[in-house]
Structures are given as C-alpha cells and as structure tokens.
Design a protein that fits this description.
The complex is a heterodimer of chains A (about 425) and B (about 300).
Chain A: H1 2-16, E1 25-29, H2 33-48, E2 55-59, H3 64-75, E3 82-86, H4 87-90, H5 104-109, H6 112-115, H7 118-121, E4 125-126, E5 129-130, E6 133-134, E7 140-145, H8 146-151, H9 162-173, E8 180-181, H10 185-193, H11 209-224, E9 228-229, H12 239-246, E10 253-257, H13 258-268, E11 276-279, E12 301-305, H14 312-324, H15 326-334, H16 349-352, H17 363-370, H18 383-399, H19 405-418
Parallel strand pairs in A: 1-2, 1-3, 8-9
Antiparallel strand pairs in A: 3-12, 4-5, 6-12, 7-10, 7-11
Chain B: H1 2-9, H2 11-42, H3 59-65, H4 68-100, H5 107-119, H6 122-133, H7 139-145, H8 159-187, H9 191-200, H10 204-233, H11 236-242, H12 255-265, H13 269-296
Helix pairs in contact in B: 2-13, 4-8, 4-10, 4-12, 5-8, 6-11, 8-10, 10-13, 12-13
Classes of the chains: A alpha/beta (about 425), B mainly alpha (about 300).
C-alpha cells in the first residue's frame, strides 16, 4: 500500500513539473584567453538585457576548434549555436554549402554595416552573403624595444620606409645585432601592404605573381643580410621565441597585429614591461614613387551562427549585444583580446589611454589613425590551405635556399589550382 | 587428457559457447564492423562538409592513385617503420640482456624507468620533444651536436632531419616498452636449455645466439608487428612537432597526417575515408608478410 502511494506521488510530481527548460545556448570559442571574456559578457547580457539568458562557453585551441567543428557538422552530434572562428580558418567552410546562417540582413538592420570598419566587413563573406561578424581590427603594427632603440641610437622616424629599415639593419649587422624576427605570415602581410594578396577577387592564387616573387625575395635577402633572424621553430607565435630571441635582445622589433601586442607580447614578456613601443609599419616606396599604406591586416576572430541552431534569434541578439555594447567592446581591449572593429566604441577614453606596458604610448590612438589604411583580406575556400601550406611546407625551403621564390610561387600555385 | 577430451562433448558448455562469445561479437560489430562499413560508405560519397552528399563511386580512389603526396606519405611511413624497427630491436635486446644481469633489487626501478616513455601520452611526449628538437636552443643541439663541434641542426625544419627526428622520438618512446617484452621472453626460456648449452660451449655469445634468440622469435615478431602498426597509426607525435601538414617539403608526411590533411584542412572527408580503406589491404598484406617471413626463415 505504501509503495503504491509513493509511486502515485512520484507520478503526480512528474505531471506537475514545469515544461522542459530551454537548453542553454552553446558558444564555442577558439581561444582559451577569450573564455573569461565571454563568460563576463554572458553575465553582462543577463544583467542589462535578458536575465533568463543561459549560455555555456566551451574553449578550444586555435587549430583544435575547426577540427571539432568539422566533426560536429559532419556527424550532426552536439553542434554549437554560436561559433567564434579566426578568419584564417573560416575559408575551410566555404567549399560547399556554408554551414552558417547568412547574417546580411540582420547586420544591416543592426546598422553594423555602417559602424564596423568597412574593410573588415567583407572578411567573413562569400559573394554578397555575410556569414560572420568581425570582432577585431587586426591592424598590423611594428612593436619595437624602446630600450634597445635608444641604445643603438634609432628612433621610429628613422624607419619610415622599408628601404630605411634595411639601411638601419645593415648598420646594426656590423655590430652583430639583428633587427627583426621573421615569420611565414609576413609574406601575406607584406603582400597585402603592397596592394596585392594571396588570392585575387576571382579567387585565383597570386593575382600579381611578380610582386609575390619580389616580396619573397625581399624576405630571403632580409635574412641573408642578417637583418632578420628566423625563430628556431620558424614562428613568432612560439612561446620559446620570446624566451630566446626576444629575451636575449637578439632582435629589436616584431611585426604583429593589435591582438599580438595585447595578448602574446604582454603574456610572454611581462619582464619587458615599459620597454616596448608601437609604431606604424614602414611603407613601401613603389617604382612610381607611390607610398603604400602604413599598415596591413592579419587574422582576427569573428562570430557566426550555426545553420542548424534552433535558437538563431537568441544567438543573434547575443552577438549583436557583444558587437554593439560599448562595455563589451572596451572589455575586449582591456582584457587583452583585440582592438574592436566597431567604430562608435572608439570614443571611449579607456581605448585611448596610454599603456604602461608600451612605454606610455596609446596603442588605441595609433590604431584609430591607421584604421582607414587597413587593406582588405581576400577570402576564399583555399585561403587556409594556402596559409598553412606556405607556413609548414614552403617557408623553410625558401629560407634554407632549397627553393627559389619563383619555385615557391609556381609550386604553390600548382598545388592550389589542383584542388 | 580425459578432462580435455570431455570438453567439446559437454552439451551444457557447447550450448553456452555462442552466448559466451556474444559480448565480444557485439563489441566487434559496434566498434569495428559498423565503423568500417561507415568508412567504406563515406569513401564513396562526395566531399561535402555540410548538406547532402551524393554517391560518387570510385572517384576518390581513382584520384588518390594519381596523387604523388599519397605515395610520399606511404614511402615516409615505410621508412619511419623500418628506421624504428632497425634501431629499437637491437637496442631493446641489449637492454633486456643487461637488465637480466643487473642486481635483482634494481630491476623494478629500471623496468619502470624503461616503461615510462611508453606510458606517457604521445601528445605530452611530443611537447617534451619540442624542447629536445628545438633549433639552436634545443637539448639535442646543446648537449650533443654543439659540444661535438657540429653546426646546430634545425631538426624540425630542415627536410633532411625531419624523418630522423620522428624516428628518434619513436625510439625514445618504444625501446623501453619492447625491452620489457624481451625480458619476459628471456625469463620464459627453460633453465634446462641453458644448462644443456653450457655443457656444449662456454661462449656466452654462442649460448645467446643459439638458445635465447631462437626462443625470442615470437616476441620479436610481436614487437615488429607492434612497431609497424604504430608507424601506420602515428599522428599525435607528428602533429605536435610538424603541424597538420608533413613539414618542410613533406619530409615528415606520414599516412595519418595525410588523412588528417585531406579531412580537416581540405574538408575532404570522403577522400580521407578512401585513403583509410585503400590502405587497409596494404597493411593486412604487410602484417601477413611479418608472419610469413619468420616461418620461411
């Protein structure tokens, strides 16, 4: 009798239970550093917009994220609602039907098409459809050691053009001092600064083959003249690079985007606080006398909504909040993630403050000055392949002299055209 | 003898045999046959990441047979396997013999030390090897190459040294593990055989060669098969050291790196599945050879 009563009570309890609670929104982040930021944003969104909003942030490594996402998309198992992807990896999803929601009309409705830096707006697009909203400006800067510049009697004004940079480098070489650490990503960065790119608007590789060869040759010369040194593992993103070449004063400067200075330099060289400065990139003086922009662009995250998400509207509202809320934009900078591409936020004083780490210079003011000069990045399905192919297969062969610049361009072109 | 003879005729046990095998067969079906069938099916579908894919028959197989990178991956993997086997087996035999002759009290500690690299997750081991192989600042250069008057070798970027670096990592990982099996094999040799051999000769080499080594053949065969399978399935070690591709000039492109590149860099899951299916008979043939050669010898 007692058992029957208990069973009935349990059944009654189940019947009276509220309808199934909506599952929290799944947000996949491709950077462990950004996890803290997005968890803060969820709290801020709950406080100012929707107290019932629930989301779970899952962070993966930069290269791990697209692998997880591809498996999830292919198998349909536990896909996320919102995805944060780097532009370098975004092209992987452009091969066939794009697995993200077309956000074009929502972006226009929210006025983001006018408020975001126009050159960054086309980053996550295919044709006219926009599949992602760019978060960072990703403008390239030259980070330099103020103490070492002073020691060698160099000022940023001495490095207005790359020719001047090479001349100063040659002078320092006589004192056994290198200028810069060289990285495979510099190829596309410099190519873009010179008005070209890895891909043309038609999606074909190397729209200006002669310029690509010339840029590669310039990089090889920079190393052979002792002006540039190649990090041991061939990458300026390797933590050991900071422990060796940077900390031992082997080099004086590094090229990097805003996020590189906010995140990597500060994270890996805290002992050099106050000894770093920021300046625009030296410019190229092309044969006609025309000067190139003082910056370029590389990488940067964007937010997308997975096509099969059942909470597209909720996901978009959260993205819109993160993209347009002033506090959300400022925190992205102050937490060391990136400088926002959302222009209305630039009025906030916190973005313009001098940075103690960068010798009391204002990185924000410099970035805002350079923003109109940022070149566009040509997005294609083959972009990730081209980036990693050069990075992992061709860069060392080029630098070791096993392949000439001409051979690198021809072989890369052949491999990319074959796909 | 009587007990053994009664086993097959026992009606109660014979009736239960299918049921006793059921858990194994279930797992075999769920985790081997079904995924294999899924892989074969995927290999005949178009390379579509999202949305409906269509049946393309043998298209991926035909394309693969014309891809020189697949041949390069297979050649590298075979070289990697051969290099590992050639270095690990003699080293492990030497260590096993030395271990047997060590003071008994030291053996557990030394055995544990030898097993440790094999027990370490491959990703962790590869991360440690990043420091070993790191350019000029790497341990290998700092401790061996530079003190001997050599030029610092960029183990992970110079195409001439990439595959040797991967082999070295494999040697570090598996030598202790294989030694452990050899010690077990040596301990299983009946003492009477050694006593009889010592009546014939006083040469330790001769005893080792004519008694120990022939008795170790099954264990050596096991080690060879194990190392071949490891070579054809190695991924984490190469991925951490070289990235998702095969490194400079594809010098470290192994079979699984090639499959990974097809699936996760090019988004060609169908092609990646086709590589796996294509290689299965090859691997089966290789293992069959491993069994056949010692028998002939």
């Amino acid at each position: 009798m007692k058992t029957t009563t208990t069973g009935l009570a349990l059944l009654a309890g189940l019947a009276m239970a509220p309808a199934a609670v909506a599952a929290p929104l799944q947000l996949w982040i491709s950077s462990y550093q950004d996890k803290v930021y997005y968890e803060d944003m969820i709290r801020l969104y709950q406080k100012s917009e929707d107290p019932t909003f629930e989301a779970v942030v899952t962070a993966y490594g930069f290269r791990e994220m697209p692998d997880k996402l591809a498996v999830s998309i292919k198998t349909g198992a536990n896909p996320p609602d919102i995805v944060q992807l780097d532009e370098v990896l975004f092209g992987m999803y452009l091969g066939g039907e794009v697995p993200f929601v077309d956000l074009t009309s929502r972006v226009k409705e929210a006025g983001l098409d006018k408020d975001l830096v126009p050159q960054r707006l086309k980053l996550f697009t295919r044709g006219e459809a926009m599949y992602g909203v760019p978060q960072s400006l990703s403008a390239m800067l030259l980070y330099y050691r103020t103490d070492l510049f002073e020691k060698h009697g160099i000022t940023p004004a001495d490095l207005t053009t790359w020719d001047e940079f090479v001349a100063v480098g040659k002078r320092l070489k006589e004192k056994n001092q290198a200028m810069i650490g060289i990285d495979p990503t510099y190829f596309e960065v410099l190519l873009r600064q010179r008005g070209s790119d890895l891909f043309g608007k038609d999606g074909k590789p190397f729209p200006d083959e002669a310029l690509a060869i010339d840029t590669l040759k310039w990089m090889v010369d920079l190393q052979s003249q002792g002006i540039a040194v190649q990090p041991d593992r061939g990458s300026i993103f390797d933590p050991v690079f900071f422990n060796t070449a940077v900390s031992s004063d082997t080099i004086l400067c590094i090229m990097g985007a805003d996020w590189y200075g906010l995140d990597m330099i500060q994270q890996f060289t805290p002992h050099l606080k106050g000894k770093w400065g920021v300046m625009p990139l030296p410019v190229w003086q092309e044969p006609g006398g025309k000067l190139s922009p003082r910056t370029s662009a590389f990488a940067g995250q964007g937010l997308m909504i997975y096509k099969d998400s059942t909470v597209t509207d909720e996901a978009w509202k959260f993205i819109q909040f993160v993209m347009t809320n002033r506090e959300a934009n400022v925190q992205r900078f102050t937490q060391g993630n990136s400088f926002p591409a959302y222009r209305p936020a630039w009025k906030d004083e916190r973005l313009l403050q001098p940075s103690e780490f960068f010798s009391n210079q204002s990185m924000g003011k410099l970035l805002i000055r350079l923003a109109p000069e940022i070149p566009e990045v040509a997005m294609t399905a083959q972009r990730p392949q081209a980036v990693f192919m050069f990075q992992e297969n061709f860069f060392s062969q080029l630098m070791y002299g096993q392949l000439s610049p001409e051979q690198v361009v021809t072989q890369m072109k052949g491999a990319l055209n074959k796909q | 003898m009587q007990a053994a003879a009664s086993l097959p005729s026992s009606p109660s046990l014979a009736g239960r045999v299918p049921w006793l095998l059921a858990p194994y067969l279930l797992f075999f079906l769920a985790f081997w046959l079904l995924p294999l069938a899924g892989g074969v099916r995927l290999s005949m579908q178009s390379d579509v990441l999202y949305g409906d894919s269509e049946y393309v028959g043998r298209k991926h197989y035909r394309a693969l047979l014309q891809d020189p990178r697949l041949l390069k991956a297979l050649a590298n993997t075979a070289l990697f396997a051969a290099g590992s086997i050639v270095l690990i087996l003699p080293l492990a035999l030497l260590l096993a013999q030395a271990l047997r002759e060590t003071w008994r009290g030291w053996r557990p500690v030394l055995t544990f030390a030898l097993l440790l690299p094999g027990l370490t997750p491959p990703v962790v081991l590869a991360l440690l090897f990043l420091l070993v192989f790191h350019g000029e600042a790497g341990l290998l250069n700092q401790w061996f190459v530079l003190p001997l008057g050599g030029q610092a070798i960029n183990w992970l970027k110079d195409p001439d040294y990439i595959l040797p670096a991967l082999v070295l990592q494999s040697v570090w990982r598996w030598t202790g593990f294989v030694t452990f099996f050899f010690v077990a094999g040596m301990n299983a040799v009946p003492a009477a055989l050694y006593e009889a051999a010592h009546l014939e000769t006083t040469s330790r080499w001769s005893v080792w060669r004519h008694v120990t080594l022939p008795r170790l053949r099954p264990v050596i065969l096991f080690a060879v098969i194990y190392l071949v399978i490891d070579a054809f399935s190695l991924f984490a070690g190469a991925y951490v050291l070289l990235g998702g591709s095969g490194g400079t000039a594809d010098a470290g492109l192994l079979l699984v790196s090639y499959i990974y590149h097809q699936a996760f860099v090019l988004g060609k899951f169908g092609t990646a599945a086709a590589v796996s299916v294509l290689v299965s008979p090859l691997l089966l043939g290789l293992l069959w050879l491993c069994f056949l050669v010692p028998k002939r010898a």
